[in-house]
Amino acid sequence: MTDLTGLVKAYDVRGTVPDQLSPEVARALGEAYARVVVLPEGAHRVVVGRDMRDSGPGLVAAFADGVRGTGVDVVNVGLCSTDGLYFASGHLDAPGAMFTASHNPAVYNGIKLCRAGARPVGQDTGLADVRRLAEQILDGAPSAPADAPGAIEARDLLAEYAGFLRGLVDLTGVRPLKVVVDAGNGMAGLTAPAVLGTAAGLPALPLEIVPLYFELDGTFPNHEANPLEPANLLDLQAAVVAHEADLGLAFDGDADRCFVVDEKGAAVSPSAVTALVGLREITKEQAAGRTATVIHNLITSRAVPDLLGATDARLVRTRVGHSFIKAEMAAHDAVFGGEHSAHYYFRDFWFADTGMLAALHVLAALGEQQHPASALAEMYTPYVASGEINSTVADAAAVTDRVRDTYATAYPDAVIDTLDGLTVAHWDGQHPQWWFNLRASNTEPLLRLNVEAADADIMTKLRDDVLSLVRGEDA
């Protein structure tokens, strides 16, 4: 019996090629996706795109064959970023499939599936059913063929994607900026010249782009395309200082996440970006006479609810993970959502995440005033955070209970919740001000700790105290 549980994850498909994800498996997933998601919605076509990995073309062709065998047409948009695929899904009002493994090494590939309008397909919204049907197809289960196979069409939407994003944020009047962009040999090497430059035939912006690793290469010869790891920002940080640039931008492999570096080469917290962009979107809503709703996950800095809550906006706190954010975005008609991992979501982008649109907002905010990026970032970074710290434990639940009991006793006035792991907060109107979150990994024997406090001394003490409990000899 075929078992695809190691390949089909909670929110996407991802595995090694060809032992886990082969053309045969891709074909079965294409047929299953069409039967489970596409046809029941009454859709008649699927849009498919891919990143720069060498395995992409063969897997896309096989997946498209599976889809077409059900009578559904395929629009192949070729090379694109993940947010480029979301654009295609929204623009064409069609279900979509993006072949990417994001920042994973070259031997990996995967598929991010969505319904029409870029609505996500996850474990609880169809992906588990797709997996089960694909397993049956691979095991030889008969299926009724369509009267005629679907057609296939190649279409390039890069210029339309670039024009759409530019229409959401106007950079034509900003002061001239020099910007280093690190594409990490990923898809930003295609999208950044189109959106920020003139490669898609759009007028020039007052931006001087210094390209870093724009060559599309799925072997990632320069560094891993995962800017969340500090080591992968070193080249960008050095280049920003060397070129005396105003700003640095780094994208992950499929270019749906964006990270920011200031003119001194210092990384800007994604929480600061969330606060900055959130305030811009709130202001736009207020100008239209509407009350804005903004989504943030529970790991983002307290600066986000503090700063955005000072407006008339409604703040909604949610679990970590893009599926939860997207669900809350749609449920609340939220104008914007941000995560500590540098995923940024926009109502104007079908509630989906797009790193490039977040980058445009940051560039506009910087270019509309005269202060350097470091001063701008400081305004949105009033507190001190530890970053995520992982600890290997034998019994995550027992360790979490021990930490909870210790802090419930020591700080009876602290607020404790279990929305996602354990969060203990000693914050509102209290001194010292601090909070921490302890979450178990879904796939590894790890506990992930995030700490934030009003100053560095408090943060350091709290971090070390919690870690001593987590990593005790009986942990």
UniProtKB/TrEMBL annotation:
GO terms for molecular function: metal ion binding; phosphoglucomutase activity. Residues 8-125, 161-265, 282-383 form the Alpha-D-phosphohexomutase alpha/beta/alpha domain. Keywords: Isomerase, Magnesium, Metal-binding, Phosphoprotein. Its cofactor is Mg(2+). Pfam families: PGM_PMM_I (PF02878), PGM_PMM_II (PF02879), PGM_PMM_III (PF02880), PGM_PMM_IV (PF00408). It comes from the Bacteria. One of its GO terms (biological process) is carbohydrate metabolic process. Residues 388-467 form the Alpha-D-phosphohexomutase C-terminal domain. The keyword Glycoprotein does not apply. Its EC number is 5.4.2.2. NCBIfam families: PRK09542.1. PANTHER family: PHOSPHOMANNOMUTASE (PTHR43771:SF1). Belongs to the phosphohexose mutase family. This is Phosphomannomutase/phosphoglucomutase. It comes from Isoptericola dokdonensis DS-3.
